[in-house]
Design brief:
Blueprint lengths: L14 H22 L5 H32 L5 H23 L7 H28 L4
Helix pairs in contact: 1-2, 1-4, 2-3
The protein binds fe (ii) ion.
Fe (ii) ion binds next to helix 3 and helix 4.
Length: about 140
């Protein structure tokens, strides 16, 4: 079973946002598989996991830009609070990725669970509110 699975409760009903969320979820599953793969050598596994985490970080950043641009265009009233959540998460990921790349920390189940929980909660609450506002104004 996948580490995190897409389900309808995660839908914002904004096509581009939902497609990107699905891609994020797929990539988080890849990160989980790579970092928990006990069949490969530790060093090789960690190197691959770090590369996957780095890509995930870039992708999350560009995904946030897409959401923030939609909020700006539609003059969404919750934009500032939503952007602050994105920034808090981005700062934390940047910090953690730095610690991990310096060998100060492993990509652990605790980190993977943090990513999963943050993304699920953010999508189901904050992105859902944005999705409702945008779909009511004709965006899909
Ligand atoms: Fe968001």
């Amino acid at each position: 079973m996948a580490f995190i699975e897409w389900n309808d409760r995660l839908a914002t009903h904004i096509k581009v946002v939902d497609e990107e969320h699905k891609f994020l979820i797929e990539n988080l599953n890849v990160l989980y598989e790579v970092s928990t793969d006990r069949t490969s050598a530790t060093e090789e596994r960690d190197k691959l996991a770090r590369a996957v985490l780095e890509n995930l970080g870039y992708y999350i950043h560009t995904h946030f830009v897409v959401e923030e641009e939609l909020m700006r265009v539609f003059q969404y009233p919750g934009t500032d609070a939503h952007k602050a959540e994105h920034k808090g998460f981005t700062d934390k990921i940047t910090y953690l990725a730095g610690v991990i790349s310096e060998g100060g920390m492993d990509i652990s189940i605790a980190l993977l669970t943090f990513l999963k929980d943050w993304l699920s909660t953010h999508i189901m609450e904050t992105d859902a509110r944005m999705g409702k506002f945008l779909t009511e104004r004709g965006q899909n």
